[in-house]
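Quick one, probably user error.
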């Protein structure tokens, strides 16, 4: 919503927003672009009346502003409808989908297109460090979009990506997620099958053949398909000689058995190699030169909140990751430890998303977090939003982790986590937070506390 707001302002519209809360990095991003945000819903925000209201998918009937909007017959659209009408029309639409990897793959594509002089339009659900924002309006013929499978609005109960009119599609992975929207894995697969059916016969689809769920989704595609993967499935695009170093990943790109290029990128983990292969397949399909692709990867600066380095103090490195699905958490931890094998890794987990506050992934979260060396778990955010009897149990999660020989404990608040960490962190340790929210500002609190610990007077240390 925030990138769309700024994009619409750049198109000449007057834009303001309303939310129940707003926090960095998006609060800072909106302020820098002079987009006013009202905190709390009030019909007074509708005077003067807007010409159009873009309604996010967390808004429901009974909200005082939406009730006033409906009573006054002010036009409304969902977020993806606005993206379709104001950004996609007249462009070749490149839509990146999948349970995991959407943001990073979209960001990689945007930067590769930029390096190739393609002047891409793009809209991504995160802030891209190379651009300093999550969108770009340009005069290029392409628009690159992160295609989310979450629903669109209370009046538009279909996956967002079904509005995006894909000419080129990417599917990284298909797993169960969004338990508040989908009742089964089969419902999610159906949404992705519908996405595939939107791609025209002269379009192009890139999909990860490592996963049977993806292979099933693409089985009846009417367009050209190229696959990518790391495992033994017969993918068109593959990576070989993968080498993980402290601050980069190096691998050879293979296309249908032939070595193409060597790629170096400052991204960790096998999951990012898959993201890279997806981006390469699209880039080569639209005839971007290998030199531009290599340059794009080597200079890629990442996405905020995707294993984002927040700082170092007291010999401890602090990272922030948006991961809130067991697969994403597990792969992020495995990838990080491959690049930093000497570090003791602390995972700080906040069950905040609609799915992780439920018990549906109770055992899977323990398996994922067991890749860390130590784990601290915050209280479930808004447990009242989970169905009765289906709230994630922090105590059981701790017990399951201990059974995996991983020390773990529940903590009542971020301040208590900082106290525990301050006593136990040592030089060379790394802390990774996993949450789709601000996590109580724990990153800066911890950096400040560690800095003070190492610089306080000797007498006080004693």
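Nope, works fine. Designed sequence:
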């Amino acid at each position: 919503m925030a990138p769309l707001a700024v994009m619409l302002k750049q198109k000449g519209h007057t834009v303001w927003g309303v939310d129940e809360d707003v926090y960095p990095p998006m609060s800072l991003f909106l302020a820098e672009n002079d987009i006013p945000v009202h905190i709390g819903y009030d019909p007074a925000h509708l005077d003067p009346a807007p010409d159009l209201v873009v309604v996010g998918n967390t808004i429901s009937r009974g909200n005082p502003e939406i009730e006033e909007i409906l009573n006054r017959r002010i036009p409304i659209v969902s977020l993806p409808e606005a993206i379709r009408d104001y950004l996609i029309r007249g462009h070749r639409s490149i839509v990146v989908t999948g349970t995991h990897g959407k943001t990073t793959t979209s960001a990689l594509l945007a930067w590769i297109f930029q390096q190739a002089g393609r002047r891409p339009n793009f809209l991504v659900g995160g802030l891209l460090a190379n651009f300093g924002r999550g969108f770009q309006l340009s005069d290029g013929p392409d628009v690159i979009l992160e295609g989310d499978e979450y629903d669109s609005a209370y009046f538009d109960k279909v996956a967002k990506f079904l509005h995006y009119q894909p000419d080129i599609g990417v599917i990284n992975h298909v797993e169960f997620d969004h338990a508040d929207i989908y009742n089964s894995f089969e419902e999610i697969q159906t949404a992705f099958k519908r996405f595939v059916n939107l791609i025209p016969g002269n379009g192009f689809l890139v999909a990860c053949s490592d996963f049977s769920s993806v292979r099933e989704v693409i089985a009846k595609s009417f367009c050209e398909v190229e696959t990518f993967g790391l495992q033994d499935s017969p993918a068109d695009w593959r990576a070989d000689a993968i080498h993980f170093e402290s601050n980069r990943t190096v691998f050879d790109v293979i296309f249908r058995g032939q070595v193409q290029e060597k790629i170096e990128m400052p991204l960790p983990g096998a999951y990012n190699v898959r993201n890279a292969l997806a981006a390469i397949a699209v880039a080569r399909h639209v005839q971007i030169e290998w030199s531009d692709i290599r340059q794009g990867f080597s200079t890629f600066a990442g996405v905020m909140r995707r294993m984002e380095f927040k700082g170092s103090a007291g010999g401890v490195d602090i990272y922030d990751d948006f991961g809130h699905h067991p697969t994403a958490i597990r792969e992020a931890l495995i990838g990080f430890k491959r690049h930093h094998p000497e570090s003791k890794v602390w995972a700080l987990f906040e069950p905040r998303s609609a799915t992780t506050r439920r018990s549906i992934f109770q055992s899977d979260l323990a398996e994922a977090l067991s890749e860390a060396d130590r784990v601290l778990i915050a209280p479930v955010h808004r447990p009242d939003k989970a169905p009765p009897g289906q709230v994630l149990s922090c105590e059981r999660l701790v017990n399951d982790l201990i059974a995996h020989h991983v020390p773990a404990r529940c903590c009542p608040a971020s301040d208590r986590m900082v106290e525990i960490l301050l006593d136990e962190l040592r030089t060379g340790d790394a802390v990774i937070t996993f949450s789709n929210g601000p996590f109580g500002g724990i990153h800066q609190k911890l950096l400040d506390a560690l800095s003070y610990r190492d610089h306080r007077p000797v007498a006080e240390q004693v």
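The chain has 15 helices and 22 strands.
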